[in-house]
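Predict the 3D structure for this chain.
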Amino acid sequence: MLPLFSCSVSAGFPSPASDYTDELFDLNRLLLRHPDATYLVRVSGESMKNAEIHEGDLLAVDKQMEADHNHIVVAVVDGECTVKRLVCEHGTWWLKPENPDYQPWEIHDAGAVRIWSVVTHVLHELIPGKLAALLRTRD
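Done. Predicted structure below.
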């Protein structure tokens, strides 16, 4: 549980800050739509950098959500997991990276690709430290 301030923080011009909290907020309420089907996975690689998904980030993924056009998904292709944007263009489905250095992958055979989960949140540190250290100890 974390304190949730009743005021919002301006991303433009500063506004007076509030010294009180409105309530305690459980991050699980935000991250877990389906608690029994939600997992955290770590990102490796930079194919999704233009979607602000970077090497070392954690993704909250929901295995119960049904993937749809424009969702970012974790897919299993040739036995390996990859994170890409699922896109339907003119009746053809694609797994598209968010980095021009990588090529999109056309889904010719639906049986060759398994959508494992839908990405619901990206967690990354702005000041590297605790998350990176925690993940290093788990390797």
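The radius of gyration is 18 Å.
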